[in-house]
Design goal:
heterodimer, A: 19% helix, B: mainly alpha, 2 domains, 8 helices, elongated
């Protein structure tokens, strides 16, 4: 059999042949007959412009511009033209403004929406595709993605006068306003601190050596949401500086900035400090990120062998813009030299320059073999070991930092492994409420739910504790429950159990096309028995594989006595 | 519309960039959607030709344009055509390879296909996707590892 690389080459060649290159004629066919940079005439805009020009001419001076905060941004128009080009000049650089742009009022937007609906293609640039989190989340440097993309870009370029910028954050829901955060880069100026990172190499700060002028644009579809609705800018705000570390920064709400990245020498000194502490068997925690969960292999191999030496294998990559993160590969040698532990770490930087090691959630090998790592919830009352491939950092995460929940999953295949401490029983159609209950009560509630098809319950032992195992799916007659609001078109499926998160009930559900295996058991806790739910949820077609993959985890549960 | 010089420059751009743009979008979105997204991205390029010319990495930008347009067409995962039977010429291909590729996380799939399938260098992929070379390497390693697990093939050097 040819090796995998050969198979990939051949398959790629096949794809290349199967899907021919796009021809020039085919491109032209997709272009509507319009002038793409034109905006229709609006009489109100003309008046606003005229007033703005008169005032600016009369008083003059940049200082007046801030007085426009809260008013409409002026727009240049040509009254005799059937369509009006927005001036490329930066007329109003104010970064704190509310109103409507490019239209000036709801009435104008409504009128133009009607024109667009009637086939006027000159509004196409104001119509984005449906906003999706994927559109922004995956390509955060893309100016606008598809969320009112052209509207945002034109506002930046033609109103604020920005010529070089990056989108650094964005988010919203279908039918709701979208906030897009942009940073202004110093035009035609390289960023020497991050010359090795293409994302930031050509985006130098605009305020000082570290800080960027940062604007949050709110985009809305005031008249009609969804496909075909006109996007308008309704507010702009300049975001303020913050003291929180960049590696936890929420770029939706703070000014963008970069750190001075550590030099490679500083990085090596830091790694040596951590590794020497690991060999010494004490003091390594001080180098780790705050709140690092149980760090397997920190001081010993999986068999308890202490380390006797270490090696920085390589600096894998870094520093990344703007937070100066590096990735390093470190090798620890067990006493006697028989065991080699190799791990990949991210190294972050605090704003004061102090480095922190992100111990991560896995990526460890012992003598070349992946090492199962231990996770726990409820302050260690429940622990279990997670084997490869489930422990990869992007497959396993703690939801909302809630101590009672850990979720793992194979992202692309939509397979989830969920452990819930203290699950509640959903009550009422689509689980508007929930109540506490024991494992037996949870089992009874699930089995009697007419919206779930449940297999016969099976008694099993998990971690030495008696448990009940159920396999279930939505019943054929079940009508899937909607999401928490209209924007959640996928809905929540059929609730199976609920868990309290930050004061709200959060149902864990199974939906059309999915199946779930759930283990319910009562484990001893400090205040008596407490229920635990362990769930594996997967699409029908891979459900069997998911159960097989989860078996080692189910078999590894340990429940600590109070 | 563009003048003749600009049109000529654009056709040259399409010849140069189009095939590789198509490869990367097929890797991200699957065959049909990827090709469609390529056409959409190039149409966008035609309409925004003057703006595109000022960009340092127009191909990378068009990749994001195409990807964003294409992703709304995907409901669950990209579709890669199965090879019912391998042609007489060329090597045998594991029948599960297309599905295994679809199962990969997107960045893993894109980097694996571009590097090992279409023969791009790590640096070319990094520039195209706007990420660090080390990031590409990591995704490729993880993607290949997952493919080997799913296809149950032995590790090759």
């Amino acid at each position: 059999m040819p090796d995998l690389q050969t198979q990939l080459r051949f398959y790629a060649d096949t794809l290349d042949e199967l899907y021919s290159d796009v021809g020039f004629d085919e491109i032209l066919e997709r272009i509507p007959p319009r002038s793409p940079r034109r905006v229709p005439v609006r009489r109100g805009v003309v008046v606003a412009l005229a007033v703005a020009i008169v005032i600016l001419t009369f008083i003059g001076g940049v200082a007046l511009l801030n007085l426009f905060s809260g008013s409409e941004p002026p727009v240049v128009t040509q009254p005799d033209s059937p369509a009006t080009t927005i001036s490329p000049a930066p007329i109003n650089p104010s970064l704190n403004w509310q109103g409507y742009w490019p239209q000036n009022s709801l009435e104008e937007i409504e009128l133009d929406q009607q024109r667009a609906d009637d086939g006027d293609r000159s509004f196409d640039w104001q119509i984005g595709l449906e906003p999706t989190n994927e559109a922004v989340g995956v390509a955060p440097t893309d100016p606008g993605g598809e969320v009112g993309a052209e509207t945002a870009v034109r506002y930046l370029e033609e109103v604020l006068g920005w010529t070089d910028y990056r989108m650094v954050a964005g988010g919203g829901s279908e039918g709701e306003p979208w906030d897009l955060v942009f940073v202004q880069c110093e035009p035609d100026t390289p960023n020497p601190m991050y010359i090795s990172d293409p994302a930031g190499a050509d985006c130098a700060p605009t305020l000082d050596q570290l800080h960027y002028r940062t604007a949050k644009l709110r985009l809305e579809q005031p008249i009609r949401q969804g496909a075909g609705g006109l996007w308008v800018v309704t507010s702009v705000s300049q975001l303020a500086d913050s003291a929180e570390p960049l590696y936890v920064a929420d770029w939706h709400s703070r000014q963008y900035e970069q750190v001075v990245p550590a030099t490679e020498e500083e990085l090596r000194d830091f790694v040596e400090g951590v590794s020497e502490a690991r060999v010494a068997g004490t003091g390594a925690e001080q180098y780790l990120m705050p709140l690092t969960p149980g760090a397997s292999l920190l001081y010993t191999t999986s068999s308890g062998l202490p380390y006797e030496s270490f090696e920085l294998v390589r600096v894998d990559w870094g520093p990344t813009w703007p937070d100066g993160t590096y990735r390093v590969i470190v090798r620890m040698l067990g006493a006697g030299g028989g065991v080699v532990v190799e791990q990949a770490f991210l190294i972050h930087q605090e704003q004061d320059g102090e480095l922190r090691l992100d111990y991560g959630l896995g990526e460890g090998t012992e003598n070349g073999e992946p090492v199962a790592l231990t996770y726990g919830i409820l302050a260690g009352e429940i622990t279990w070991r997670v084997p490869d491939p489930w422990f990869s950092p992007w497959m396993l995460g703690v939801v909302d930092g809630d101590e009672s929940i850990v979720v793992g999953g194979v992202e692309a295949a939509e397979v989830y492994f969920v452990v819930l401490g203290d699950p509640w029983i959903p009550e009422g159609q689509c689980a508007p409420t929930a109540r506490r209950g024991s494992a037996d009560e949870l089992v009874a509630a699930i089995v009697s739910d007419p919206d779930l098809d449940v297999s016969a319950s099976t008694d099993v032992i998990v971690g030495g504790v008696q448990a009940v195992r159920l396999d279930l799916a939505p019943s054929t007659s079940a009508e899937m429950c909607p999401g928490s609001d209209e924007s959640d078109s996928a809905g929540i499926g059929m609730p199976v159990v609920s868990v309290m998160q930050q004061g709200d009930e959060h149902p864990w559900s199974v939906t059309d096309g999915d199946r779930m295996r759930i283990y319910l058991l009562d484990v001893p806790g400090p205040d008596g028995l407490r229920p635990v739910a362990i769930m594996i949820r997967a699409p029908d077609e891979v459900f069997g594989e998911a159960l097989t993959a989860a078996e080692p985890m189910i078999g590894s549960f340990v429940f600590e006595s109070p | 519309m563009l003048d003749d010089d600009a049109a000529e420059a654009f056709t040259g751009f399409v010849r140069e960039v189009g095939p590789r743009l198509k490869q990367s979008l097929i890797a991200a979105l699957g065959g049909e959607v990827g090709r469609e997204a390529t056409a959409e991205a190039l149409a966008w390029a035609w309409e925004n030709w003057s703006r595109l010319q000022t960009m340092q990495n127009p191909a990378g930008y068009l990749y994001r344009v195409g990807r964003n347009r294409g992703i709304s067409a995907l409901r669950r995962r990209p579709v890669f055509p199965p090879l019912i039977e391998s042609p007489s010429e060329g090597p045998w291909i594991e029948p599960g390879l297309p599905l295994a590729l679809a199962h990969l996380a997107e960045m893993q799939r894109v980097t694996v296909l571009l590097v090992h399938g279409f023969g791009w260098t790590y640096r070319e992929v990094a520039e195209h996707l706007g990420v660090a070379v080390g990031t590409v390497q990591t995704h490729v390693e993880r993607g290949m590892s997952k493919l080997r697990i799913e296809l149950k093939v032995e590790l090759h050097a």
